[in-house]
Design brief:
Blueprint lengths: L12 H13 L9 E4 L3 E5 L7 H16 L5 E3 L7 H9 L3 E2 L19 E3 L7 H10 L11 H15 L3 E5 L5 H11 L4 E4 L2 H12 L7 H4 L17 E5 L5 H15 L4 E2 L7 H14 L5 E5 L5 H11 L4 E4 L10 E6 L4 E6 L8 E7 L5 H14 L6 H9 L1
Parallel strand pairs: 2-14, 3-4, 3-5, 6-7, 6-8, 8-9, 10-11, 10-14
Antiparallel strand pairs: 1-2, 12-13
Bound molecules: iron/sulfur cluster.
Iron/sulfur cluster binds next to helix 2, helix 5 and helix 10.
Length: about 400
Amino acid sequence: MKQFDVPIIYRSPLISAIKQKRRLQDKLKKDFGPTLLDFGDLKIYLARHFGFCYGVENAIEIAFRTIEENAGKRIFLLSEMIHNPQVNADLQERGVQFLMDTYGHQLIGFDELSAEDVVIIPAFGTTLEIENKLSAIGLQTEKYNTTCPFVEKVWNRAEAIGKKGYTVIVHGKPRHEETRATFSHAAASTPTVVINDLEEAKILAGYITGDLHLQDFYTSFKGRYSPGFDITKDLHQIGVVNQTTQLASDTQAIAEYLKGIVGEDRFADTRDTLCYATLDNQTAVVGLLNTPADAAIVVGGYNSSNTTHLVELCEQKLPTSFINSEEKMLSKEEILHYDFHHRQETLTRHYLPTNSPARILLTSGASCPDALVEGVIRRLAGFYGKEYMLESLITEFEA
Ligand code: SF4
């Protein structure tokens, strides 16, 4: 896979050595078991796959190169480039300004832009409406477009099945940037609806089977269907695509369920649009959770959808802490972690086990720098008086 020029501050010598060793030992990516970092009375099990994915590295490389190439110009990002606070803060420190927040609320009006400015499209992509607004101003976005190719693959497939007469069902968080972008691109070629989860797929099924009153569709899915959507005919043939960071197993369950409702001949197979990184990271967490352990730590941005899904998986089995930096591990006893169910940081005591050895599972989201994961490992090792072992671990993995 292509190597990207990502600032060294995001890399970690330890994690790079581990990933390289695992890559060489398992070229076909068949082994989803974790890597053990053995500190004696502390055992850290690191997921087989975690951290920056292709799309995030591509976006970071383009964004930092854009800054270098455009000294003296005003540089804007449509919204957060990826859902990682450190990366976004680093870009802002270098003068990049955000035009919108994650939910599409305008922070700086488009009327303040001129053709001389530079606007970077984030990895999630953007809507056709916004693309049109920017090109009407005379802004050339192609050069600074960091839209992930795997997101574009979803758009292309939506367009392809749309041309064959299928309606597109987008499984995603309706307000997420990527879902809004995918909705916009799909809706340009075919009727499109966004559903959040299996529950909503079941409601949609009620309109397909006629069990629900058809006109109620427009209330149930208000703001989630394309203009001119005709419930009397637009759910006859369907295909499901997803916001790439959704739980792949959820999307597959929704697709299987809806296929069962409409029948195989009226259902488009889009399985190959599932993002490799999301699948790998989620499968690696399943592999991680097969390891007997006492607690799990997941590192990533609090508004990161893919990270939240990793937390969800871990929570089903173990006490899990969701943190965005090692600094949230205040001590061996206390952690300030994100409770995504209530959308708030919460102080928890005794998050580390008292038994020996303490067995901790560790992973991170696709927008989390490896340097942050190393920070967490260092802090944990420090709590057990074992930080001195890190250098020899790097040497061991580099061998
Ligand atoms: S998670 Fe997948 S689709 Fe999203 S940016 Fe990464 S590689 Fe691209």
